[in-house]
Amino acid sequence: MNNLRKHFPLIEQYTYLNTAAAGLLSEAVFDYQQDKNIDFLLQGSLGRDKEANILTEVREKIAYFFSAEASRVALVPNFSFGFNTILEGFSAGTKFLLLENDYPSINLAVETRDFNITYAQIDENLEQNILQKVETEKPEVLALSLVQYLNGIKIDLHFIQELKKKFPELLIIADGTQYLGTEAFNFAASGIDVLGASAYKWLNAGFGNGFFMFTQQAEHKISPKTEGSGSHMGKYKENELHLLGNLEPGHLNFTTMGSIKIALELQENIGLQKLEQHIQMLYAEAKKEFANLGLLEESVLNRKQHSPIFNLKGDKKLFQQLTQKDIICSQRGDGIRVSFHYYNTFKDLEMLVGVLRK
Asked: Out of 3.30.1330.60, 3.30.450.180, 3.90.1150.10, 3.40.190.10, which CATH number does the structure's domain 2-25+272-357 have?
């Protein structure tokens, strides 16, 4: 996978292990954005008119890439904007099940509204914890991250499918920001009703863009009051139940949204199966190395399901040592978070482990 590095100039100078904070911008996406900005600079509205179909193309590319329906793919500036809009479509008193210490953009958005909220604990028994709460508390909505931003714990997606079969009326809303782009994903078969993501992390599409995919069941149950000219303009917005239109009330940035299409095409050209296998081999080896060094918490060690994100036991001094060695990572929670994407190599892991051993 070394030949992939040519697409991402920064990794010629640094050991970049920080995709969980911000995915790298490829030269393909950069060139696309630069070309479109030049077109707007020189052509103004004439240039924009030429891009009239780009939003439809992006919507259809996302639908194809993640096995969703293009008429139920909404383009948004980021996950938080879309999620808050969706929450406005629920009545006061709706019963939500959240995960303790999940990403603030999920929990804070729900907690600041007049909902009835219960929580499941994030540990090695995550799925059993959720099932127990669903059975006893009978929530109407489950909202969660597919991958936990602090320690990389990943929900068992087969569990989500079975949960939906057992409780078909439970509406499942998920944040895929720390997940989409790490492996192949089929939304139609997932059991998830609403899945949103910002595209600047594992999809490497730059900032200011994201999307939501939703099912027909969700479209019937969620009714935000957001409206604008954008709610009724463009292909796929003829539906009377237009959750798509509710999520797109105003103008969207054609350039940033178009970047999603370019980023997905790069992954397609490289080969999705090839990328997934590489990421899986990397994080499997990383987990083994970190476990041998005693750097992982028990809840991570005791799970079969995981992601390319790890939170290592370490203090500010260790973080500074890593930074001095040009290893880019993040301080999160009580440790140091590292993450591995398809442009990382086993050499990157060796560089990190070498510093950790010292």
From this structure: 3.90.1150.10
Residue spans per domain, the chain: 2-25+272-357, 33-268
If phi > 0 it is left, if psi is from -120 to 50 it is alpha, else beta; for residue 211 that is beta
| Cβ atoms 333, 122 nearer than 8 A | no
- Listed as ranges, residues in the chain with pLDDT below 50 are none
Q: Is the CB of residue 262 less than 8 Å from the CB of residue 29?
A: yes
With residue 328 as reference, give the H or E element that holds it. Answer: strand 327-328
pLDDT for position 2: 57
> Do 2-25+272-357 and 33-268 fold alike per CATH?
no
CATH topology of domain 33-268: Aspartate Aminotransferase; domain 2 (3.40.640)
pTM above 0.70, yes or no: yes
For residues 148 and 339, the answer to whether their CB atoms sit within 8 Å is no
Q: Report residue 98: phi and psi, to 5°.
A: -115, 170
* CA 242 from centroid of its chain's CA atoms: 24
Distance CA 274, CA 337 (A): 25
Half-sphere exposure of 117 (CA within 13 A, CB side): 16
Two tokens, residue 343: 């442009």
Classify the C-alpha dihedral 3-5-9-11 as positive or negative: negative
Q: What is the pLDDT of residues 95-122, one digit of tens each?
A: 999 999 999 999 999 999 999 999 999 9
Selection from 235, 265, 275, 267 nearest residue 75 by Cα = 235
Q: How far apart are CA 243 and CA 142, in angstroms?
A: 19
Condensed to tens digits (0 to 9), the pLDDT of residues 11-37 reads 989 999 999 999 999 999 999 999 988
User: Cα separation of 226 and 224, whole Å?
Assistant: 6
